[in-house]
Design brief:
eight-stranded antiparallel barrel, two-stranded antiparallel ribbon, alpha+beta, Alpha-Beta Plaits, 6 helices, globular, 218 residues
Length: 218
C-alpha cells in the first residue's frame, strides 16, 4: 500500500534562514534518495492558525519509513540537519497509509484537514474522494490515516528535536488557485463530510506549494 510521511512544524525565528537553506539544498534531496521514496513536497501556510510549514513524502509502502536505509539516515544526521533540528517547534510527524486518492494534477495550493484525535473513514470514502476531485478548481484529493507501524521514536535525529506529536490522519485537497482553496476551506469549516470519520480535535489550514523534489528515474 502506498504511504506518506506527513509533517507539520513551526520554526524558531533565529533558525529560519538555515532551515530554509537546509530544506531546499540538502534535506529534500537526501530523503528522496532513500530507496522506496518517490517524491517530497513542501508547503507554507497562507491561511489558518496552525503550523507554518507542511511537508509530505510519498513512499512505496509504510515499511520504507522503518527500513534500514532510512533508519541509517535518522541515526546519522548531517551537520546541517543537526543544526536545523534545534529550530523545529510544535512538530507533528506521522506515517500514514493512503486510504484513497483521486485526480491526476498537482495543485498550487492545498487545503489540509488534519485530524488530531480520531479518524475512521467509512467504506464508501473512496467514492467521496473521487467526487470531491471532480469539483471545479480541484486538482487532486488525498485521504490518509495513521499507519499501524510508525518510525522508531528514539533515533538520533528525533532525540535532537524533542518528542513529536502524532495525528490520526488527514484530508489533503490540492487546488488550482488560492481562491479555490479558500472556498474549499470555508465549506469544510462549516461541515466535514461524515464519510471522513473525523471526530474530536482537527484543524483546517490553507497552504501554498513551495517546491517538489521527484526521485530521478535514471
Amino acid at each position: 500500500m502506498t504511504a506518506v510521511l506527513a509533517i507539520w512544524n513551526d520554526c524558531a525565528p533565529e533558525g529560519l534562514e538555515h532551515f530554509e537553506r537546509w530544506y531546499i539544498r540538502e534535506h529534500l534531496q537526501e530523503r528522496v534518495a532513500v530507496p522506496g521514496f518517490r517524491f517530497g513536497r513542501r508547503y507554507e501556510a497562507v491561511g489558518g492558525t496552525d503550523r507554518r510549514f507542511f511537508a509530505f513524502y510519498e513512499v512505496d509502502s509504510p515499511d520504507v519509513l522503518s527500513s534500514p536505509a532510512y533508519l541509517e539516515r535518522l541515526e546519522n544526521p548531517t551537520p546541517w540537519t543537526q543544526e536545523a533540528m534545534r529550530s523545529f517547534r510544535r512538530m507533528v510527524r506521522t506515517v500514514c497509509d493512503v486510504r484513497a486518492a483521486a485526480g491526476d494534477l498537482a495543485g498550487g495550493f492545498a487545503v489540509v484537514v488534519r485530524a488530531d484525535s480520531a479518524m475512521a473513514p467509512t467504506p464508501g470514502v473512496g467514492a467521496l474522494v473521487a467526487g470531491f476531485a471532480r469539483e471545479e478548481g480541484i486538482a487532486r484529493v488525498h485521504l490518509w490515516t495513521a499507519a499501524a507501524r510508525q518510525t522508531p521514536a528514539d533515533t538520533a535525529e528525533m532525540r535532537s528535536r524533542g518528542k513529536d506529536q502524532l495525528c490520526a490522519g488527514a484530508l489533503v485537497v490540492e487546488c488550482l488557485r488560492r481562491g479555490d482553496a479558500e472556498r474549499v476551506a470555508s465549506a469544510l469549516s462549516r461541515e466535514l463530510p461524515a464519510g471522513l470519520g473525523i471526530s474530536g480535535g482537527h484543524v483546517i489550514t490553507v497552504y501554498a506549494l513551495l517546491c517538489t523534489h521527484q526521485r530521478s528515474q535514471g
